[in-house]
Amino acid sequence: MLSARLNLVYYNARSGCVIEVYTASGVWYENNITWSNAPQPSSLSDSNSTTGSSGLISWNVKSDVQNFVNGAQNYGWVIKHRDETTKNTLVYFYSRESSTNKPNLVVEYAPTVS
To answer: What pTM, to 2 d.p., does this model score?
Structure first.
């Protein structure tokens, strides 16, 4: 694997908000996840900062994806603001239900030649 990047498009954000990506520590279900039953963040994968009120933010998740390929449990990722106690630093992301700007995972690989 050459690279793996998790990409989300954000809007209504302040520049300089540090957003971190962690592997999720357990099973969760999209239809019934809440703040009280969400899996805890496990290991930090990468962090990146917003650069304006809207734009693309991308994280290097190559190590995580390689671990998933090698058989590690894949519960996805937890995306969170580094400092969730600071006021007025909300960041909104487009979701897969959006008609545009859907999140994506881009994996670049090359086959092994023997």
So the answer is: 0.90
